[in-house]
Amino acid sequence: PAPQPQDVAAPAAAAPTAAAEAARPAPGVLLVDPAIDLGPISPYIFGTNYGPMLAVPMEMMPDVLASRFTALRWPGGDWTDTVDMQPFQLDQFVWFYNQLGALPTVSVRLFGGQPETAAAMVYYANIEQGLGIEYWSIGNEPTLYEEQHGEPYDTERFNREWRAIAEAMKGVDPSIKLLGPELHQWNSELATTPKDPAGRDWMTEFLQANGDLVDVVTVHRYPMYEVRGDPVTFDQLRANTEVWDDEIRYLRQLIREQTGRELPIGITEINSSPTSVSGQPASPDSFFNAIWYADVLGRLISEDLFLVNLWNISQRSGGLGLISGFTVRPTLYTFQIYKHFGDQQVYAASGVEGVSVYAALREDGALTVMVVNLNDDEQTVTFELAGGAPAEAEVWRLDAEHNAENLGKQPWPADGTATLPGQSVTLVVID
User: Fold this and answer.
1) Which residue would you say has higher pLDDT here, 16 or 201?
2) What is the dihedral of CA 110, 115, 120, 123, to 10 degrees?
3) How far apart are CA 80 and CA 182, in angstroms?
4) How many Å is the Cα radius of gyration of the chain?
5) Entry pTM
6) Could you say which DSSP state residue 390 is in?
7) What does the alpha-carbon distance between residue 173 and residue 96 come to, in Å, rounded to a whole number?
8) What is the Cα–Cα distance from 45 to 338, expressed in whole angstroms?
9) Which of 361, 349, 323 is nearest to 24 (CA)?
10) Cβ–Cβ < 8 Å for 19, 33
C-alpha cells in the first residue's frame, strides 16, 4: 500500500501570536523563540517530480535515498497529456516510491484523455491492486494547451472536461483526493495570473466550477520564466525569495473568496527556471540555486503549504535535474540538510539584510535553526535564543566547501555571535 498521508493541521497560515508580533529582532540579530508554537510542518514539503522521462540510474539510488524525498509526483510534466499511462508503468512507480517511503501523487491524462481511462487507472491501483494511492491530479498546465496543441482551449472546456474525469475517478474510489488545477506560472495578483483567450482568470473560473471537488489547490511556479537572453543573476534570485509570501497569500485569499472554505495548497512544479539552460552562475544546476531553494522552502514552510514538488529528480540533459546522469547537482544537498530540520515550526525572525532564519522542534526534542545567507559576503550575526543559550550546538553546513556536511558539536559563543559564509545554509541543532 502507498505510504499513508499524515493529518496536517489547518491549511491556512497561522496568524502571528501577540508574542510573535511583539518580538522584533534588532539589526544584526537572529531571534528564535521556541515557546511560540506556529504549528506542524507538512511532511510533504520535500517532494520532487519523477516519471518515465525522469528515471534515476540505479548507481545514483544511494544519493536519492540519502535525500529523503517525502512526496513524488508521477509521471511529471507534459508527459501526462501525451499518452495514457499503462498499469506496468504504475507498477514501476510503486516500486520506486516504496523504496523512498514517499507519498505518491498520480496524474492522469486530460488533453485527449477519457473519463473511463482515468477511472480504469484508479480501479487498477486502488481496487485491483489495493495500493491505496490517495492523491490524484488531472492534466498538466491546461493554461498552455492552446499554445502546445494548436486548437482552442479555454476555461469552460477545461472545467467541463476536468469535472467529467474527476467524477468518473471518484465513482470508482470515493476516498481519493483530487489536486488541481495545475496551472502554470502562478503569481501574486489578478492582473498577472494566467488568463484564457477570452480574458477569464483560470484559477477563479476553476474554483467557481470545481471548488466542490478539488481537495488540494495546486499551481506551478518558475520565477525566472520570463527572463530571456541574458543569464539569470544572483541579484535576481535574491530578490525573488520574498515574492513567494505574497503569491501564497493571494492564492489562499482567492480560495477563501471563491469557495468559502480553507483548502490545502501545493506547488507541484517549482524551480528557478523551466528552461534547459545550464552551466551559468545562477541556472538551476548551479550552487546558488541550492541556496535560493533553501530560502524558498523556508518561506513555503512558513506559509503552511501542504505539498511541494521540485522539478525534477533526474534529467540527462539541461540543468533541471537534481541528478544528471551520474552527477549530483547542488540543490540535492538542500534536501539533505533539511532532512535534519524539525517538524513543529516555532518563531524565528531576522534583523539581517539578506539573511533568513527558520526554526522548528524535532520529535527528539531538539531545536533546529536553519539560517540562509543569500549575500555574496560572509555575515557576522548574533543569535538571540529565548530561554537562554546552550553550552554547545551541532552545526551542519551547505556552502561552497561543504555539501550538507556535519561540522560536529561546537561551543556556543558567550556573546552569541556567529559568522556565516557568503552564499550558505547553516543548520544549528540544539539538544
Assistant:
1) 201
2) 100
3) 12
4) 21
5) 0.95
6) -
7) 23
8) 10
9) 349
10) yes
